[in-house]
Amino acid sequence: xxxxxxxxxxxxxxxxxxxxxxxxxxxxxxxxxxxxxxxxxxxxxxxxxxxxxxxxxxxxxxxxxxxxxxxxxxxxxxxxxxxxxxxxxxxxxxxxxxxxxxxxxxxxxxxxxxxxxxxxxxxxxxxxxxxxxxxxxxxxxxxxxxxxxxxxxxxxxxxxxxxxxxxxxxxxxxxxxxxxxxxxxxxxxxxxxxxxxxxxxxxxxxxxxxxxxxxxxxxxxxxxxxxxxxxxxxxxxxxxxxxxxxxxxxxxxxxxxxxxxxxxxxxxxxxxxxxxxxxxxxxxxxxxxxxxx
Amino acid sequence: xxxxxxxxxxxxxxxxxxxxxxxxxxxxxxxxxxxxxxxxxxxxxxxxxxxxxxxxxxxxxxxxxxxxxxxxxxxxxxxxxxxxxxxxxxxxxxxxxxxxxxxxxxxxxxxxxxxxxxxxxxxxxxxxxxxxxxxxxxxxxxxxxxxxxxxxxxxxxxxxxxxxxxxxxxxxxxxxxxxxxxxxxxxxxxxxxxxxxxxxxxxxxxxxxxxxxxxxxxxxxxxxxxxxxxxxxxxxxxxxxxxxxxxxxxxxxxxxxxxxxxxxxxxxxxxxxxxxxxxxxxxxxxxxxxxxxxxxxxxxxxxx
Amino acid sequence: xxxxxxxxxxxxxxxxxxxxxxxxxxxxxxxxxxxxxxxxxxxxxxxxxxxxxxxxxxxxxxxxxxxxxxxxxxxxxxxxxxxxxxxxxxxxxxxxxxxxxxxxxxxxxxxxxxxxxxxxxxxxxxxxxxxxxxxxxxxxxxxxxxxxxxxxxxxxxxxxxxxxxxxxxxxxxxxxxxxxxxxxxxxxxxxxxxxxxxxxxxxxxxxxxxxxxxxxxxxxxxxxxxxxxxxxxxxxxxxxxxxxxxxxxxxxxxxxxxxxxxxxxxxxxxxxxxxxxxxxxxxxxxxxxxxxxxxxxxxxxxxxxxxxxxxxxxxxxxxxxxxxxxxxxxxxxxxxxxxxxxxxxxxxxxxxxxxxxxxxxxxxxxxxxxxxxxxxxxxxxxxxxxxxxxxxxxxxxxxxxxxxxxxxxxxxxxxxxxxxxxxxxxxxxxxxxxxxxxxxxxxxxxxxxxxxxxxxxxxx
Lengths: 293, 304, 460
Fold this sequence. Notes:
The structure holds three protein chains of three kinds. Chain A is an all-alpha fold. Chain A is built from 16 helices and no strands. The longest helix of chain A is centred in the C-terminal third of the chain and has 35 residues, at about 255-290. By secondary structure, chain C is α/β, with parallel strands linked by helices. Chain C has helices at about 5-25, 30-35, 75-90, 105-115, 130-135, 145-150, 160, 185-190, 200-215, 230-240, 260-275, 285-290, 305-310, 345-355, 360-370, 375-380, 380-390, 390-400, 410, 415-430, 435-460, and strands spanning about 65-70, 95-100, 120-125, 165, 170, 175-180, 180-185, 225, 280, 295-300, 315-320, 330-335. The longest helix of chain C has 24 residues, at about 435-460.
């Protein structure tokens, strides 16, 4: 865009510049977009301000938009009313372990499907991605029974292992590997590179964007996972943040909204930060599936 | 072949088999996990639907098709299926329609459009449980943001928590809010791949803006539409977190969907047989819906 | 390690002494001061027989887990009780865990825990849940343990104790026990020119409420009902009794669809939809009441301390209004011990339960939360007497207690019965459905559970 603009006659270039500024025609578009942004941001702002309000202020009409006094105490109360620190550690551990296993599984599965020989590879691929068709909720009862029988309730492996199988990620990485230039792969093979070396020093480095995307999608999913950790943890020791947040809501009673909102802020901030830092990759990954059909 | 020759140490036969062994080694863990935690439970779930079991008794009681006859003769089940379809249709429809609109906006050469895109997408990465809790407060019929805004407009706030007619719109709004950005971003990616000359050609043919949208944009976006239809339908049918945190299926079952019913029968009422029955029915509905979409809609998709 | 450490022994003896003293039961007056020694780990009363040095040679486990829902936001108070226990029994560590938002959730969690063999040592099971676990054989009868730690059962309020008896055995000990009270906002009462008391009858209240409602701002109501998960089936149980009906009889015959039951159901429905002076609380009836948006409510004594603390207006409490007769249930939660834990854990659990329900601690709990003192000696003891004088609102519940009657089997013995009744009542007050059409559905659903899950096990 920019290069072609440079070659345009000066008059047209001015026009183009004006178009991206604020012609009257664009005002409705700006307004609509602003409205959409407000609808997204307002609830989060509301959470943020409420997290700093006293209970009394929350229960006063008309509602206030800016807290009278900033009650940071809510954050401390949320942090201590339930073992938030513990939940935090648990979430970090299960997210890292869960995403790590998913990543390894996804990459190895995709590598095998693309670069290694085996009869009926297409059928195996089908078998892997058909798992996407099985709704998670259909599996929870038998999985709970199994995990309970293994004595894995209230353990990290109980939270992590049942979610370590990967279908979408394997699909994503397979698409990526298929798109790698054949010549490079062939050249490496002629150089006598073994498969492990090829995976590690050629295929993975070339697939970095896809890998980052896969990792981020996986991290976000694990961090936010609610139903499964809810089922397989029943004490503070292994509970993760989303479950802990509802725990906070319970232990504070239904009317301490300020404290609960403070908890919510603490739960969503890390994932929001990861997202803002790497949003390009996440968006890319999610669109990859649709564009490549 | 060439690289086998460079390593004369191992016998040729074994050399040839190594990649096959490696294939198994690489793929086995994932396959094993998929079998154990996805496919086995699917089969097991169907099996459990023929039993009565409370999760703790040592023995299960075989009841044949009784759970199914009970399920299909109970008006509550029909109500819950209806809820599931209403929730899915509304959220999929709203997400895709508004998402398309926003994508068209973002595709204009507006300033700050990247910032707007980021903001719009952000709720999608937030957890359903946290979002549910935040919105529960926002919908508080007296002290919430929504009632404050409605007050300002002079409209009395509906009782979102209690009124069976308003609870469903409430969860639909929240779910759509969360997923809007996803549809937006997918559509935006689609819009950016549409060749400009298609529009030029249409313009030359005298097509107006509406006609260009209808005859160029929409057909060109059909792969995204199809993709979104399948994925958002699957995820809407399986929505749990927001419903669980906000309404727990209430009031009076007004927001109870099949997925919530599975959870409730199994882990609240401990009727594993009934829960598995719902899960099995749900699976076949999802399978059927997806196959129908693939069969009848994908044909009409223009992959360009 | 097999021998008791000195500290442990002393601690146990200290606690045991307190228990022993409490054990002297009937003669009330000198109880409370001496029970205070229970909070001191010192062996100052060490001459008392070491009641807890068990005859079976079982020694209490070093750690137990306690699942609670902190009813009426009582977490801090429970933590204090645990601190006191810790001081008296330094060698038994108690882990307090939040097991859900309400009684139904702790029960679910307990059930799921049983499947996974991950269970607590003390579990809070409410009036409507313990029976399910009695039926399943997963909770321990407490009689032998009570004897072992020498708890004087005669000092517990009889009605509260009886609620956890079946088959001649004791399956739980009363802890957070309550009755519903009629709470009213004295400011609004005065503004409407009403006398400073609760209405004697529902008919009287209809008149009063009309006055109150005429001065209400939009969105404000003279009275509020709760929803199913806040136990409308409990508060309504008093009302159906007052109308001369009941949910069921002792033989598990479902009777809510009697003319009286229908009349009672349609009465609360009319409060909302015809007389329009009542609403149904969105979430928490106490929060609405405190915000001044509803002027009166039927709510558990359990929230009383919180309500008094947070109210910016004077609060009155009163008995249930009457109709044809008086009727009022008891309710709340007791503490149970699972069957599938070790004897050591059971013993430690029993010591804990006995300790936190001893006269001094039940008085402390009662004053700071609002539940009724579960011990007779506590009710009549000086601490509570003084407290009642200062806060007469608390006395209402204790005065009402002798007039209560045991709850109907449909609610407390049928597993899930409370939720089924609650949903039926929600259909009336949320959806304006005629009780005539609702009760038969409720009856059918309950009857099915009775026939499949209770009759085969109890052979009735």
